[in-house]
Queue: 3 jobs
Job 1
Amino acid sequence: MQKIIGVRFKQAGKIHLFDPGDDDIVAGDFVIVETSRGLECGSVVVGVRELPTADDLSEDVPLLRRIYRKATKADLVRVEENREKERQAFEICREKIAEHQLPMNLINVRYTFDVSKIIFYFTAEGRVDFRMLVRDLAYIFRTRIELRQVGVREQAKVLGGVGCCGRKLCCTTFLGDFAQVSIRMAKEQNLSLNPAKISGVCGRLLCCLKFESEYYHECYMKNNPVFEPHVGDRVILDEGEGRVVSVNVQRKIATVLIGGNKTVTSSWEDLLPADYDGAQKFSKPDEEIPNEDEEKEIEPPQETKPSTTKFSGAKSPRKKFVRGEDSAKGKDAADSADERNKMWINRPRKPRRPKGNFRS
């Protein structure tokens, strides 16, 4: 049985596995280990565990590095001195960045335990030519210099802060590594898709969306079953309509051929069958569509009382047809009144006598 311990070099950092050897080490001790960057001093967060040997497993167990030794009081004092040197190196590097006018933002400086290398962490929008900066820093500190560009999430992890929940950031307190977060997790949890509400201080999606994502995903898939494609099926996706050429059942992804020369790999959740009708999904089952071929029942007209409109000779009456027994009589009365008015309006005018004496 192989023994292992978990060592962390910074708060909320990634846990690295090492072989403790024959030393009696418990969680909370400090050890000196050899890494790819050189000697480092880290704290033990996972006590001694035992792993099965390669004979008990079908695959080989990865070879672990053995710890250098347990840290002493003098080693811890040296670690504190390195922390003070890091603060001074931070100020010096900021001055040199301003002197060279480089578009970069320095966020952290890290010394190795044996001071064989100094690592400067910075953020920038694009690539930065910092060759002259490295030359100046190497001349000042007389050691190996490494400049490492990190993203906005790593920047928030180093600087820290308070989240929208009112507590310290998860990446600063306990998250050792960043998990992949997608907008689909927010949809499955029925959260508002407003970027201001589902984004953290780093401007990316909240890491806490991953915490309960598995439970919400199971509930969501029960109510919304996923279409399972097969090779040769015609499907629809965002890029268009195509044919499935390969399917990965374990990862639940499919490769779709679009247009004969373009292949797209997509998840099953983003695929729909080619004969899918979106109107069927939103149609109401209880709603009945009327058939035009069916005979409609026509209700008989209701009888109404005849109108008793009185006409005066001064004003032209409006034609009003009254349904019932006296409808024809009312129509004739209205027509006769119009004729009388037309006689006065359209009567021939008397010719005017011309002025002057036209007698011969």
Job 2
Amino acid sequence: MASRSPNKDPWAGPEVSGRAAKKAAKAASKAAKANKTRWYKQIAQVYQMVAKQQPLIWLWLIAIVAGFEAVAILFGAFIWKGNIGYMAFLAAPLGLLACSMYLGRQAESTAYAQIEGQPGATASALATIRRGWTIEQEPVAVDPRSMDMVFRVVGRPGIVLIGEGSTGRVKGMLKKERQRVARVAPGVKVHELLVGRGDDQVPLPKLVRKLKRLRPSLNKAALAEVNRRLQSIGGMKLPLPKGIDPMRARPDRRALRGK
């Protein structure tokens, strides 16, 4: 019996040959490279952002490179004699590296200065943490009138409640949230932090550093269990307008028919 060819899907498109697939892959890679921002463009963008807040930043960058070159020339002139040019050549990339590091720190300070004092600035700072912490994207408690907020993060040091806003009101909100987490995670260490520039407060630029310096008190298994239990209480639930139940809402059929 003659072998029957498999039935083709009538809705399938035309088969793509190997050459066509390679061309499509090359075109996709070229498009990705074109959309990717070059490193020197990123540095230029960072410099422009910092220069708006610090117009004399270029003087500091020149001073850093000049300082490296001066040290290299003195080293080549008095210690490693006869190698002034070679030492100056080696100092150039080191000076540029130091400039990039300095510019990065200034950019971070500028970014924090732009958002500090605004509602939700704590969430932006917590978003810079890469690993080791479970961070709630939304605040777990909010005062809609004053926009005071409480954020919750969980890591090896335990549960950390971070308050943002007026000290008096936020302390009450932190106390309520501590009671909530204590019901589902008894015995777990709970830290309380207040973001601000006052006494017993943590400035926003130093918040992430403060979290990383807390001493660990949980192992990986206990940390996973704490995260699981905290999911049961969830976060903040926004109030719904009275008289509206989204689960029972029905569409207007006359409007759907155009009448």
Job 3
Amino acid sequence: MRQILVIVSSAILIAACSFGSDLRRAGDSDTLRLPGEPDAALPATALPSEVVSAADAEYRLLSNLYERASPSVVNIEAVTRDGDGTESDVRRGSGFVYDREGHIVTNAHLVSAVESVSVTLQNAYVRPAEVVGLDSFSDLAVLRISADAESLQPLRIGESARVQVGQRVVVIGNPFGLSSSMTTGIVSGLGRTLPSAELLDAGVAPGFDNPSIIQIDATINPGNSGGPLLDSQGLVIGITTAIRTDSGSFQGIGFAVPADTMRRVIPDLIERGRVEYSWMGISVMREDGGYGVAGLSESLELPVERGVLLRGVTVGSPAHRAGLLGGSVLVDVRGEEVCAGGDVIVAINDFHFDNLDGLVTYLVQQTKPGDEVELLVVRGRDTLELTLKLESRAADSGKLQDCHSES
């Protein structure tokens, strides 16, 4: 669309006339002034200090937050090498100090399958780092460096469950190698999912998304990955991980792994170097485009508008042993084939959720393999309470019972 700039001029028609004695002097100067013309404007004066102070309050908050948090943010360089020892790839990103034992938190995609990793502290000291553990499903990794405890300033992990859309957020990292850069913005969305594991490893089993992702509009670019997402108190509420882009550069949508996932994953990575996630053995249709329970309730005449509709159940899985049922009949809904007739899970351990992201978030953040959970299930017009014992995710999930199963 052409942008047309139109300059509107005001034509002032001055009638030539003789002012004669109406011309007068302004004070003792030689300046002539017309009748009725206002006095000359007085020189501008500074606003009262309290007004300036109130206007600058937000900037003082941000400056203070940066001064407190930036010493904890580090630069990470990960190197892969060819067979002859020459560098074949260098990945650069960010991370932050987790504790005074030298643990550094960053993204798994920065340090996965590399030969060496180095960490640069804000005081410019460079330390070699070992990868303690990484988890492709959450895209989180823990490194460890050898450094004096006095030089390590850990950041505190907050609670992402309290985060709200519209809340101010701050990102500190090293975009394009520019160390200790800060950008600000707001939380622009919640409850997103990312296929982190599939992006990291094409051979991983699909279908296990990284849940409860925080969407932000604070600028993040290559090099920001692994840096902390902070609230106004300086608490870490997430870790920057990805952007959505058509050009490779930031276009207003960034994503961060939530703090509650970090609180679940990081201790396991430090203790065991890996994370085991709870597995139920259910299959659910992708809910995008209105194919969750809320969007299907009218078409399928479901008695509820919240929860997770089961498409299928894996044979021999915890869900199968607990008696959960998948769908049994194919129904066309708005041009999509839906496997209908399955159970609807509406709550787990008295925690009611709206959709699949809510269920997966609870499983990831609140449970471990071996836990027994109580499910509230709607089957037709009946409500059931079922006990299910969670297991670890299996590499081979087995046969799925759903509308496409052989009879």
